[in-house]
Specification:
Layout lengths: L1 H35 L6 H42 L21 H12 L1 H6 L3 H13 L18 H14 L7 E5 L5 E7 L31 E7 L1 E10 H4 L2 H26 L22 E3 L12 H9 L10 E4 L11 E2 L2 E2 L1 E2 L11 E2 L2 E5 L12 E4 L4 E6 L5 E5 L8 E14 L17 E4 L4
Parallel strand pairs: 1-13, 5-16, 6-11
Antiparallel strand pairs: 2-3, 4-15, 6-12, 7-8, 9-10, 10-11, 12-16, 13-15, 14-15
Helix pairs in contact: 1-2, 3-5, 3-8, 6-8
Length: about 450
Amino acid sequence: MATKRYRILATKRAELDGKRQSLVKEGHALNEAADRENRIKTPAEVARGEALLAELDEVKTQTEAVTAEMAAEDRLEAHERGTIAAEAPEPGRPPGFAAGAEFRSFGEFLQAVAAKASPVLASRLPNAEVLLRKLDVYQAAASGMSVGSPADGGYLVRTEWSSAMMERAREAAALLPLTRDIGIGADADSLEYPFIDETSRATGSRWGGVQVFWKTEAATVTAKAPKIGKGELRLEEVMGLAYATERLLRDATALQGILGSAFESEFAFTIDNAILRGDGVGKPLGFFTGAGGASHPAYVEVAKEGSQVAATVVPANVTKMYARMPPRLKPGAVWLIHSDVMSQLPLMAIGQQPVWLPPGNLTQAPNGLLLGKPVVEIEQAEALGTAGDILFVNLKEYVTITKAGEGLRSDSSMHVRFLYDEMAFRWVYRINGQPTWKASLTPFKGSSNLSPFVGLATRA
């Protein structure tokens, strides 16, 4: 039966997805280990990294092959639907519902939910009877999920679908994957964490007040203790809403492609934007601008050059920005830029030495290296010449919290747009974030404050 084959393929794809996530996690761990120790990778680490990439390429090839075969099984099932109802049912199994059968895709699941909520729509779907049987079995066998009001179509998305959707959204995001992510356990909805309240590296202020003395100064020793602050983050909800017409609901493939892809992309964009400039009210607190549009206290801004032309970025700008990043944080730092800033990078040189290296043999970074650090283009950056068009940041100093093991929560209703013959779908994701730094840092020597979040002032 096609159903059995499809389940085998689905299991194989799930195994491949798990292997891919494990390999990616190991690769990140290699990079983070070198970053923490402020060193280049060892030959063994480099070799393992190359092996991981080769394994990931093989996993991708196998996943594409399995996905193609699953699509073929979908087409085969479409031809078989007319004969399924004629099969003799097994004891305890509804007629017409193949043993172990499940939804072929997220789009088909949404079709079933819509058909359950709207008898009118169900009467117009040629496969509605099979879909509704599947939904009944799905509901009865639910594990790790809950069901809202069936009258409103309140069926939550299956765990693996919701997790996969959010995983793709995380991959599509530019900033979220770079943050320090902490999962919140099942019995909590917030994170309380201690931090060292350090705003100056002057003697007596480092680590918020820790000080040590040479033995000959023992007579002048004064008791010192670190100043410990306490931060708290509570999970907030980001919500997406979409309406699907009856015509769209008839096409499971289009439904999955439009709603799935659109929401993955939009969740990624919205969360990234909040990490950059969220006001912290029911959403993450941004490191660039926060409440009332004011700069975050930890954000450091470098002034433009005295004779600098408007809407430009020059070598002096980036070297001064680079200098404002704490030395211990430079290894994990990246440049975030508006796409128009890319037009400035090839023009940068100090003497005969280029400041920016393009992607290619010298670097594998997709947008090249600026002063040896990766360049990341983001839509959320400000326009060229405006503060926020180029940022030098280390986002491991920005913490995000999510609910461990929880993906997107999904609900639906036929009532919201009943007069328009449309089904409403809603997705909710729980997340929050904020910088771990409460203010910029005064260095031991000099007067230019340091920060993991550095930007360039407007050049009008």
